[in-house]
Design goal:
heterodimer, A: 83 residues, alpha+beta, SH3 type barrels, 5-stranded antiparallel beta sheet, 5 strands, 40% strand, B: 376 residues, alpha/beta, Rossmann fold, 3 domains, 11 strands
């Protein structure tokens, strides 16, 4: 039940009883509640859990992680090509 | 092209799981782990979602033999006490009640039966994907008492807090919550302080930390003297978290490393934390298989206690009991493996679970049954 997935906010669709938005999950669009996050806007990436956004994602941190992973991959390539 | 000047497709690295399931990235991190490790280390992943990833991708078989993964207690389906399951069944049997729940909870064994048997006996038990649907149901069906089985950790607590606030704000009188809510840090502390504990480092659950932030884990890390790595759920995320844990262990560093920065900020989710604080307070909660842990649960504050289903419905059950010899407690403390249990894969299977960890896909026994049962 703890599965939570990232998606992109397309547009806000209603504000009562909950603030709802249409969110794109890799091509599948679902209505997600935004009441538990501050300042989420169309274009933001969020993590949704049980139909509710729990976090607005941070693009700079995502790039930093991917860079770190790429360095590890390059490290492996260097080690294995020198064997 | 080097890592520093590469252009990134934000859609890919924010939402595409493929980015974090990439075989090259996994090989790169694994190489790093293999090269870094010099000693035997025991690393506990707290969250059942992470246990599932470890099993599904057979990651433990790819790790160095010196690393042992310990599967922690972070599956709410597994730790909801047997008394609460009995209570859920009792409430669901009321003729005016529509009892709503996540699907997993229907098969969790109580003292005598599970919610699924109550449904078969005529109880109105509904499986919902989102708790929000329960409040909408209460608005649409004023003739019914709508009860939601509010299980979970800090990740799910703000959703119930939102529901409670809306129910009070909108004056909805036919809605209530049967809560079974837990907080991770208190449980980690209790497990680590257990004399038999052998956890050297902790992978904290990324989505719990997305709500709580990192401050609580900084003090926990210092208090327990272990590194804590906030970790995501895809296989690359898991290996990346393990790599950061190994780096910290090998260099004797204590503290928190955030290996899931795209979802977790140091301050957490302020709106969600404010909601939780307004609606819930801590209490000494009982964890199934483990026992009572101080300050490890969330219960409704006085202002919201009229939404507590245990106050609204009389409880006729007299004594709850475990009746099966399930060794979940030892498994969740890292002292045994699922295969050590005499029931595992014999009379206890996901189709017919004897113990709670065999029910949910996040339960360690269910994950081992599905993916690791025929491991050589």
């Amino acid at each position: 039940m703890c599965l939570a997935v990232p998606g992109k906010i397309i547009r806000i669709t209603s504000d009562s009883p909950f603030t709802m938005a249409q969110v794109d999950f890799c091509g599948v669009r679902r209505e997600i509640c935004l009441d538990t996050v501050d300042n989420a806007m169309p274009g933001d990436y969020i993590i949704a859990h049980a139909g509710v956004a729990i976090s607005v994602m941070d693009e700079a941190s995502a790039i930093a992680t991917i860079r770190d992973l790429n360095l590890m991959t390059e490290y492996r390539d260097r080690i294995e090509s020198s064997i | 092209m080097t890592a520093s000047n590469r252009q990134y497709d934000m859609e890919d690295i924010m939402t595409r799981a493929a980015t974090y399931r990439d075989a090259d990235a996994m090989r790169g991190v694994l190489r790093r782990i293999h090269d870094a490790v010099t000693r035997q280390w025991n690393i506990m992943e707290v969250c059942g979602g992470q246990t599932f990833t470890l099993s599904r991708y057979r990651l433990e078989e790819l790790l160095p033999e010196k690393i042992t993964m310990i599967h922690g207690p972070g599956c709410p389906v597994c730790v909801t006490p047997v008394e609460t399951i009995d209570r859920a069944i009792d409430i669901a049997m009321h003729p005016d009640v529509t009892f709503c729940s996540f699907g997993d909870m229907l098969r969790v064994p109580g003292s005598e039966a599970a919610l699924l048997q109550a449904k078969a006996r005529g109880a109105d038990v509904q499986i919902l994907y989102s708790p929000l649907e329960a409040l909408k149901m209460a608005i649409d069906r004023p003739d019914r008492q709508i009860v939601f089985f509010a299980i979970g950790f800090e990740t799910t607590a703000p959703i119930y807090a939102l529901l409670a606030q809306k129910a009070v704000g909108m004056g909805i009188g036919n809605f209530s919550l049967l809560t079974s809510l837990f907080t991770v840090p208190a449980a980690v502390e209790a497990i680590k302080l257990d004399d038999q504990c052998r956890v050297d480092a902790l992978l904290a659950a990324g989505h719990v930390c997305a709500i709580t932030g990192t401050a609580e884990y900084e003090s926990l890390s210092r208090e327990l003297g272990i590194p804590i790595v906030i970790t995501g759920f895809e296989p690359v995320d898991m290996l990346y978290g393990i790599s950061k844990a190994v780096d910290a262990l090998e260099s004797s560093r204590i503290g928190v490393v955030n290996a899931y920065g795209r979802a977790v900020r140091a301050e957490g989710n302020r709106a969600a934390k404010k909601s939780i604080d307004e609606v819930f307070e801590h209490y000494d909660a009982r964890w199934r298989g483990i026992g009572v842990i101080k300050h490890s649960g969330l219960t409704l504050r006085r202002k919201f206690e009229h939404l507590d289903a245990t106050r609204r419905f009389k409880f006729s059950h007299t004594s709850s009991h475990e009746c099966n010899g399930c060794i979940a407690a030892k498994i969740m403390k890292g002292l045994s493996l699922p295969a050590d249990c005499p029931h595992f894969a014999t009379d206890c299977t996901p189709q017919s679970p004897v113990g709670a960890p065999m029910v949910s896909s996040e339960g360690v026994c269910a994950a081992h049954y599905k993916y690791n049962r025929f491991q050589p």
